[in-house]
Input
Amino acid sequence: MTKQRAAVLEVVSRKGCHYSAEEIFEEAKKILPEISRATVYNNLHALERDRVIRRITAEDSSDRYDSSYVPHGHLYCTVCGDIKDFDIPNFHSSLSEIADTEIDSYELKVRYICKKCK
Ligand SMILES: [Zn+2]
Ligand SMILES: [Zn+2]
Output
């Protein structure tokens, strides 16, 4: 892995963070000041293609990146765009039961207005 890719991955992997590509670029610059925007974007695409990170599409703001490939839900604030992870116990197994077979993955986005924005 190149040091550029490692820096991008380090930023995306921060616990509880769902950065946009632009935010990842800003944070990666703090680790590698010479890193370019194109390099960050190329590495994000490569990491997504290799299923190391996941891209979350947010229709009214820029896409975010998530380091966790384990299926989980997202609470999405429609005002500030903040994204929080959540996990419902037994949700995955309940889905498998309904489908009557093993579920590969799911995407669950809940829209709300966070406490800060209320
Ligand atoms: Zn908010
Ligand atoms: Zn997440």
Notes: Residues 77, 79-80, 82, 114, 116-117 surround zinc ion (ligand 1) (CB under 6 Å). The CA atoms of residues 53 and 67 lie 5 Å apart. The first helix runs from residue 3 to 12. The mean pLDDT is 92.
